[in-house]
Design brief:
Helices cover 9% and strands 27% of the residues. The protein has 691 residues and is mostly beta strands. A hairpin with a 4-residue loop joins strand 29 and strand 30. The longest helix has 11 residues. The structure holds MU-OXO-diiron (FEO) and calcium ion (2 copies). One calcium ion binds next to strand 9 and strand 25.
């Protein structure tokens, strides 16, 4: 069995903002390929006299203050997790002076004055007592399956309710970079084992953590009771309306209800009942497809993959008898229970199949739950799911069935300014804002398909095509779509789309107002009457990203541009207990020339739109999984793909240990770029950043 891939096949492939290696390994060079959405689905410009007024959409005296999200009813609920708990005003310990943006090649983790940072866990750290310590010269699939995986993205630290000093850290592992993981000579001689190691480095890690005192640094517990690795070969159950469909059956699984593994898990969310959701994003790159139109809409081609996993495991090629449907079994939102290492994780077909960035849940006033999700591809869509059943506080078993049945919608945005004012320059229209109304268009409602010519199963498995037919608005790569736990307003990170308004592609519209949108933007969406189940909404653009010092098309809700930190390629979102928005970036080095960052954005009051940079990650890395425990004085980030663009023998980063013997072993350990979870905490000794 031979793998065809050689080292550095990505050179010359990139056309986006990222390093060539990131394009290659993370997304399978999606930017260099044709746009997947070739539908003629066009933008419907709002006509003021036919639209609901902004006032009626917003509602007066709406249940804005009603219970939105009411804490996590797990036996180990977090005590200060701003993702899921409404916090009282005050209590934030995160006072900081914005750091200056960091030049893109600087190999340092940079935090504000008065803060320090430390890695909690790194690629290869052993989770179990039987798992060996990491040694880059002695890798195997078996070893990797007992160690922390590669390229951690989504992150949560779920603090145990009655302890406050224990909890579980949950991270997913999006993809692997073989150029950094393996000695090239070893790789050439061991490609099949390298592929199996990569499979074991994907998925999830759940690991127990402890700390000596509230606010102090966390450390992980090797051999913790709840520790778990989920990989590309872990058994998942498929549930929901499409479970068992003929379109999900393979020769290994004639039931269409059991699939091995989860792939390319990007962002995610923690539910109010304490489970973790994660999106299977650029899953297409792992599969040799059938050449069908439906495969093409997902970017799956009948071509040998660069990863070559089809040479190791037959299911990764539709050419192998019995596996033409294997790729249909990926592209879902998965739900795992981090409190029970024996639980079977689930893929939820009710939420549709696309390149899910992640999913975030809000509980509606009537106790149905709503899950929002973006499809991260140029010109793809924003979705929401509304459960059929209602949330029951304290009934965890019941709540874990909520994402199994319900209605699925896709968003259509309408602007309220005249078309000539949306000219691609991102100049603010005469009414003072990019804004308007919108509709959640039903794809599945009350168990029935709302799309002519498509069954429910087809709508859920080929959701992108259903969105095309429904007339959804083509967006500039929706990443995190996350409701504020304080106000219920929804924030949509649109990371970039350099093909917007170019020849043959969708033109600008008020919700995507910039030609060749290199730096991205963020939309704020308010459901009608602040009812999460509403089918109508209003929206406005919170910020049009970029470096205001050099880019006139930037916009910060009217906040003075000279007072903001430059920001580009917004990706993951989080909130602190006061409802400030935190935005991590993925692509700043290639756009505005700075290392990727974590920024705080004020949403309310006179400083609305103020962007303040909190940290910068090292050369080659993107900032992921931000988690703000402000009442603890802590911020956590996943530092993903540090040193990307370098190689095993010529590293450009030595994060997080900064012992400059990368690629070598020392006392059985390796030092060099290792994707890691980092905690940034208040440094009571005032040492500031240590690197
Ligand atoms: Fe994995 Fe959409 O970023
Ligand atoms: Ca407007
Ligand atoms: Ca992302």
């Amino acid at each position: 069995m031979s793998l065809t891939r050689t080292f550095l096949p990505m050179l010359g492939h990139t056309r986006g903002n990222r390093d060539a290696a990131t394009c290659h390994f993370k997304c399978g060079n999606a930017c260099a390929k044709d746009v997947c959405n070739t539908s003629t689905n066009t933008y419907f410009r709002d006509i003021a006299d036919t639209a609901l007024s902004r006032r009626s959409i917003l509602g007066i005296g709406a249940a804005a203050s009603a219970a939105l999200v009411i804490g996590v009813d797990t036996r180990s609920a977090p005590v200060a997790h701003a993702d899921t708990i409404i916090a009282p005003n005050g209590g934030s310990k995160l006072r900081f002076t914005a750091i200056a943006p960091v030049p893109r090649n600087r190999d340092a983790m940079t935090v504000p004055e008065g803060y320090d940072w430390a890695p909690i866990i790194r690629w290869g750290d052993p989770l179990f007592n039987h798992a060996p310590k990491f040694n880059i010269a002695k890798q195997s699939a078996k070893r990797q399956a007992g160690q922390f995986g590669y390229n951690n993205d989504y992150l949560n630290v779920i603090v145990d309710k009655y302890s406050g000093r224990s909890g579980v850290l949950v991270a997913n592992h999006e993809y692997t970079n073989e150029d950094l993981m393996f000695d090239p000579q070893w790789f050439e001689a061991n490609k099949a084992e390298a592929a199996r190691i990569a499979m074991a480095a994907h998925g999830f890690s759940v690991v127990e953590v402890k700390r000596a005192k509230s606010g102090g640094p966390w450390s992980y517990i090797r051999g913790g009771e709840r520790n778990r690795r989920i990989t590309a070969t872990t058994v998942f159950a498929i549930d929901g309306p499409a479970a068992g469909s003929a379109l999900l059956q393979t020769t290994s699984d004639p039931t269409g209800r059991k699939v091995l593994g989860t792939l390319n898990n990007c962002a995610g969310g923690t539910t109010p009942w304490g489970t973790v959701l994660s999106g299977e994003e650029n899953f297409n790159q792992y599969f040799r497809g059938t050449g069908s139109a439906t495969d093409a809409r997902y970017g799956i081609a009948d071509e040998a993959t660069e990863r070559g996993w089809e040479d190791v495991d037959a299911r990764f090629s539709a050419r192998n008898p019995g596996y033409k449907n294997e790729a249909n079994r990926f592209g879902w939102i998965v739900e795992i229970d981090p409190q029970n290492p024996d639980s079977v994780p689930v893929k939820h077909t009710a939420l549709g199949r696309f390149k899910h960035e992640g999913a975030n849940v809000r509980i509606a006033d009537d106790k149905r739950v709503v899950a929002y999700s973006g499809d991260d591809e140029r010109f793809d869509y924003v979705y929401k799911f509304v459960s059929a059943k209602k949330y029951r506080r304290g009934d965890r078993r019941h709540n874990m069935t909520l994402l199994s049945a319900g209605d699925l919608y896709v968003a259509r945005f309408s602007g309220n300014s005249p078309a000539p004012e949306i000219d691609g320059s991102a100049a603010v229209p005469a009414d003072g804002s990019f804004d308007g109304t919108g509709t959640w268009l039903p794809l599945v409602k009350d168990g029935a398909s709302m799309i002519q010519g498509m069954s429910v199963e087809e709508v859920l498995i080929y959701t992108r095509l259903a969105g095309d037919k429904a007339g959804a608005t083509k967006m500039d790569r929706p990443e995190d779509v996350e409701p504020s736990p304080v106000t219920g307003k929804l924030y949509i990170a649109l990371t970039n789309n350099t093909q917007r308004n170019t020849a043959g592609k969708a033109s600008v519209d008020e919700a995507n107002p910039r030609t060749r949108n290199r730096d991205g933007h963020v939309i704020e969406l308010t459901e009608r009457n602040n009812d999460a189940t509403a089918t109508e909404f209003s929206w406005n653009i919170l910020l049009v990203a970029g470096d205001p010092a050099t880019d006139k098309s930037t916009y910060f809700s009217g906040y003075p541009k000279e007072k903001v930190s430059p920001i580009s390629c917004p990706d993951n979102l989080a909130f602190d207990s006061k409802g400030n928005l935190w935005i991590s970036t993925d692509g700043q080095p290639g756009t505005i020339g700075y290392c990727d960052a974590l920024h705080k954005v004020t949403l309310n009051g006179e400083e609305r739109g103020k962007v303040e940079q909190f940290l910068a990650v090292p050369a080659g890395a993107e900032t992921c999984g931000p988690l703000v425990h402000d009442r603890d004085g802590s911020v956590f980030v996943s530092v993903q793909h540090p040193g990307e663009g370098g190689t095993f023998n010529e590293p450009i980063s030595f994060f997080p240990d900064y012992v400059k013997t990368a690629g070598k072993t020392k006392r059985g350990e390796v030092y060099g770029p290792r994707p890691s979870v980092v905690q940034v905490f208040t440094d009571t000794k005032g040492r500031g950043s240590r690197k």
